[in-house]
Fold:
Amino acid sequence: MAKLEVRNVSKVYNHSNGIVKTIDGVSISVEDGEFVCLVGPSGCGKSTLLNIIAGLESPSDGEILLDGRCVSDTGPDRIMIFQEGALFPWLTIIENVEFGLKMAGVEKARRRELAMHYLQLMQLDKFADYYVHQLSGGMKQRVAIARSLVMDPEVLLMDEPFAALDAQTRDLLLVELQLLWQKTKKTILFVTHNIAESVCLADRVIVLTHRPARVKKEVRIDYRRPRLIEDANLSRYASEVIEALKGEVIAAMKEEYKSVDGIVDK
Structure:
């Protein structure tokens, strides 16, 4: 039995100018401890799908199963990390990491112990008493990861967490995330626009079509870890993803141009 199953999920929005289907019958199976990346053109529904899995949105059709049971609401078994870390600026770093445990009623000494453990894993224990504004962008994302892991979720959902970082910081975090994943054995579903990032991180890359999102192709990355994004041996996997994605990006661009032309004409 798979750890996480997305079964025939669709999502439809009712707008003033009509009905828009963003996801159409997507089915994905993720094994326990697997690292899977979702890639697709902008606006295809990747983040919407992640929100549905997290319980932040409801599907119009289909279901999400975790360990064989249907889930529909948010819960500590599925934790999301966003592009912005969404940390509390009035709390110290260790207080940010402890926050979920505090809300869960974990005793103070125990939550401090757990928080320090994950800060050490993220090489941030020396910054435990700092505030958010004193950290770099990469350090903030490390804190966000530590805050998620301290809750011991069954599945970690990551929505372009490195997109706002500079290339040097991102490349360092790609290696750190792989090492952390190998230590914790967490199941990770990771959304990205960056093809090189996806083949660097994933066991499998799932390519989604232009809106409405459907599964177009799965590319399995059978290569040693930890991987470096500049490793030329990853290029053949990246080429497979690019080839599958090319037509979808063109379709998205054509739709965007039509939309702009319509505005200009008016």
Remarks:
- The longest strand covers residues 18-30.
- Residues 235-265 form the longest helix (31 residues).
- The beta strands are 4-15, 18-30, 35-39, 61-66, 69-71, 78-81, 155-159, 187-191, 204-208, 215-220.
- The chain has a mean pLDDT of 92.
